[in-house]
Backbone:
């Protein structure tokens, strides 16, 4: 593996809280940073937790995994982020609790995060003006590619807030439903040719270098320089838990970008890793050997 490229990950870290009292670490940026560390990278996570038991648990997990938490802030007022999961007629519903610590991320001091390299962020943490201002400050002085991973969570988004983030990014990842929400001319349905045409218009409109659209069991498409690359769905296997599969996909795309892999290679490897994730329970893997097996299979390490 070539010399590491600095990767900064900005956004939410939280816990999914279930009715039986189980609490699971999560948040798309946290999951991405976790996977990158598993792959031997040293991403700098910029987020904020409360000065509470949940925050202590997150800090402990980050330390255990060897993840760089030097830019992780502690909030004395607002509690650690959480998603309250409840069951309604046997089906889970999710309440993304507002006013959490990650809504109030402060702008890192100059020198606290790399000034160059790759900057990755999502959209949920930007629902509050404080965190949005922190990211704006960070991007204004960042030199290098900016990667946006769109996560539209009702009611915490609007086209007026998300589309400027698309304009400010070099590389964007979203799913087909999110593309339709952000692009009025995107056709409904799963027709590949229609989707490719919509991607071409969207990427051109926002002057993107690459645009990745994930399609669940149908695989993914990547637009680059007017061309469409595709990854077919992985061989059918057991689907245990799809939560976090997109975060694993994003982490491998970032790994490929940092290592300058060809996009076709990154896309295929991202699909392989996401397929492995859905066969397991949970959005992250607390086993370095799993990541090592992928690196070995890819001939890197």
Residues:
């Amino acid at each position: 593996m070539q010399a590491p490229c600095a990767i900064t990950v900005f956004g939410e870290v939280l816990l999914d809280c279930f009715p039986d009292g189980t609490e699971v670490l999560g948040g798309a940026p946290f999951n991405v940073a976790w996977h990158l560390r598993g792959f031997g990278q040293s991403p700098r996570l910029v987020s904020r937790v409360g000065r509470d038991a949940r925050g202590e648990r997150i800090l402990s997990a980050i330390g255990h995994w060897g993840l760089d938490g030097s830019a992780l802030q502690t909030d004395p007022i607002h509690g650690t982020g959480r998603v309250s999961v409840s069951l309604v007629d046997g089906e889970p519903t999710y309440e993304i609790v507002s006013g959490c610590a990650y809504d109030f991320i402060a702008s890192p001091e100059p020198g606290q995060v790399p000034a160059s390299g790759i900057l990755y962020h999502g959209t949920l943490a930007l629902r509050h003006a404080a965190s949005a201002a922190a990211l704006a400050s960070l991007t204004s002085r960042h030199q290098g590619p900016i990667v946006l991973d769109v996560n539209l969570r009702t009611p915490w988004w609007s086209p007026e807030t998300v589309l400027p983030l698309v304009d400010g990014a070099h590389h964007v990842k979203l799913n087909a439903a999110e593309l339709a929400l952000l692009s009025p001319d995107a056709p409904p349905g799963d027709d590949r040719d229609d989707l490719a045409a919509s991607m071409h218009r969207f990427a051109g409109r926002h002057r993107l270098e690459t645009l990745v659209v994930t399609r669940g069991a149908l695989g993914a498409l990547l637009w680059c320089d007017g061309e469409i690359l595709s990854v077919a769905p992985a061989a059918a296997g057991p689907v245990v838990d799809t939560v976090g599969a997109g975060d694993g996909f994003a982490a491998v795309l970032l790994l490929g970008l940092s290592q300058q892999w060809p996009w076709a290679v990154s896309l295929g490897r991202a699909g392989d890793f996401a397929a492995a994730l859905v066969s397991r329970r949970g959005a992250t893997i607390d086993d370095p050997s799993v990541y090592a097996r992928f690196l070995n299979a890819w001939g890197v390490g």
Remarks:
- Residues 237 and 279 are 7 Å apart (CA to CA).
